[in-house]
Amino acid sequence: MPELPEVETTRRGIEPHLLGQRIKRFIVRQPKLRWPVSPELAQLSGAKIDAVQRRGKYLLIETVQGTILMHLGMSGSLRICVADVGVEKHDHVDLVFDNGKALRLRDPRRFGAVLWASCGELHPLLANLGVEPLTDELTAEYLLGRAKGRQVSIKEFIMNSHIVVGVGNIYANEALFLAGVNPRRVAGRVSLVELQKLVLAIKAVLKCAIEQGGTTLRDFVREDGQMGYFQIELQVYGRTKQACHACGSLIEQIRQGQRSTWYCPYCQPE
Length: 270
Description:
The protein has 6 helices and 10 strands.
């Protein structure tokens, strides 16, 4: 599913096309997504888009009246297109602008969302999110405090959106490898020095993925329909029994919290 780098890549791609535009109308072809499309969106005719932000994996399209929340779910993507261009089977929602362009949500599995929060209201889905990983809020000291006494694995810990947002499975695997931390380590027993390395690794991996347009796995495409390219940089993810690029040892695969985990037993010792 699209993770933080994919969502941030999409945000950066659509932002220049949305800022300052006035909404002409919403077209909802399929209201039954993960949650029903918010009916309040039909009242936004004439509203001007003031900002396009991201919080975790949510895109926030801000107007004076309030904020449109979009989530890409498992297979969703957003494209900028001419408003009257032909519609395909899984094109469920259009945000049409006065300039004749539209922001179109395509979502084959329909796990995405298009929701609404009135001005001054914090949507419940955003209320309990953890810190943004690419800000100064994510520090080793912060993680140390939140990990104290926790028996969960360090990998599951950094993937917890109540702790830190946007560190999905791909990027958790890659960051732990870069930091030299075994994914099975108990979070509450990882030292401050190790967490300092992990914080730097998380930021580095996410920034690299954003710069390269996200990771092409299954359905992810950017706002212009092009694929991401971070997959060519993957060190451990999906590389079961292949040689580690750093030491030559064979990459191991295990299961953690119903997800696959990949690591190098030599570079990430227990």
